[in-house]
Structure formats: structure tokens, C-alpha cells
Amino acid sequence: MINLSAFVPNVHFEQIPIKNLVSNQDYQRNLSTSHIARAAANFDLYQINPVKVSRRDGINYVFNGQHTIEIVALVSGTRETPVWCMIYDDLSYEHEADIFANQMKFVKPLNPYEIFMANIEAGSDTQLIIRDLVESYGLKISNTKKESCSICAVSTLESIFTKYGFHTLDRVLKLTVGTWEGEGSSFSANMLNAVARLIVAYGDTLNDELFKEKLGASSARSLIRTGKERRSGSLGLAEQMVIEYNGKKKSGQFKLRIKNLYDKSQTYVPEADMPETQPEEYSQDYDEEDYPESDY
Length: 296
What we know:
This protein has 296 residues and is an alpha/beta fold. It has ten helices and seven strands. The strands form two sheets. It has a five-stranded mixed sheet, sandwiched between helices. It has a two-stranded parallel ribbon with strand order 6-7. Helix 1 (33-41) crosses helix 2 (66-76). The longest helix has 27 residues, at 154-180. The protein is elongated and about 80 Å long. The two termini are 39 Å apart.
């Protein structure tokens, strides 16, 4: 019979009260109070992972899961609360540190498209509404630019929808499709963010038909290039859009004041402006925080 023990961790599981766990080793990172507070506010029992513990000299040292135990303690209101622990009895301090340092080396994180599609399968209202809205314009959400009439900037769609609602995202898509008629570059994160900036900054002052006429005279790619010359990200692109929209007229009822883009009381500020040169297969705008630990 084949011996497979070399492929199975020598561990056992116990429920241990949080008060009996120690996570102050020097190799541990500092606790993120903002992460703990955010996770506690969105607590989900099914997202809790077992805490990895090294039992040395009768002491339970946490080497993966220090945020988990703090989240559970905060939500439950007591450190008497037990958590499931995956316990190693044969680790040295140095081995713990090595495991902690390398635990995420070969872990492939989910990208925004994969998270979005998983939420679709879970029946999440937000993602379902966004998908249906995108498809109503003959487009689809994808993870590659190689597909025609596709949007890869998933995080941007979610950000605009979350911050400003259905109607703002609807208008962003309507203007983008109507102006550049499906040009691939027009669906980049920075382009969508720039159009959103204008809609939020100018509201009904922004004339949709004039926008399509003026901005449609230039390709999305050329606007991206000239916008970069002003400044990086969607703000430089938004400035260039205002310049193109206004044309040479010095006054008039449709003229937009560029300073409105900087009014913080009404300006849309994307969570992250991404460079336009993104990998072909992952052209979303990544704005997730990276916590190199498999805890909740």
C-alpha cells in the first residue's frame, strides 16, 4: 500500500478560546484595525477560516489567523469565544516564521472578474443589475480585451454603481457607446471613470448630444493619449474631454467650467486610476487591498 503521509499535514483540530491564543511573535505583522473593523461590520460566519496554531511549550502561538481572532472577538464582544484551530505540535519558532513568510507565495488570488462572476452565481443583486445593464447595450463583461463589445473594467463598473447608483452608470454606458460606437479603448477603466467624473461634476449641464458630437470626432485611443499628456489617470482624461467638449468657444450655455472637476463636494473620485497599459488577460482596475494571509 502506498504511504501518502508525506502529503498530509500532521495536525489536529481543537476549539480554543481566543484568550488562550498568542499572536505577538516578532515575525507577525502589525494588526490592521481598519481591516478588522471593516470585516466585523460585514461579518459572515461562513468566511471564517481555521486559525493555524503552533503549540510550543504548552503555549498556542497563532502564525496564521491573527486578524481572524480579533474580528471574532470584536463581533462576539468577548475573548472567551472559541475558534477552530489547526494545531501543529512539531514546529520550531524558525519554522513558524518561514511558513508565515512564504504562505502566499504560490497562492493565486482572485481577480475582479472572477469575484464578479462568483457573485453572479451567488445571486448578488448588485452584480446581477450591473450585468443586465451592460448587456442591455449589446455589451458583455469579460476578462479579456480580445472579445469584441466587451468590458473588462469590472471594478470600475462596481465602483461607479456603488458610489453613484444605477442611473449614473447607465448614463456612463449610454454616452460611451453612443460616442465611440464600441471602440475597445472606450471601455477601459480610465475612460469609464473619466466619463463618470464629467457626469457627476456637471450633471444635467452636460449635454449628451453635444458630448457625442464633440468627443466622437476623436477616437478613444487618441483622447487617452492626449489625456496622458495632461496628467496620468482618469482626471487628465476628464480634463481633455472638457476641452474637447467646449471647443474654441469662450462662453455659452453649454460651456463647462473645468474647475468643477475639482469640487470635492460633487466630484467622482475613483478608488484607483489604472494605467492604460494593462495585461491583456487582466485589464480590470485592481483596487483590492492585499492581505497576505488566508484569514478572514
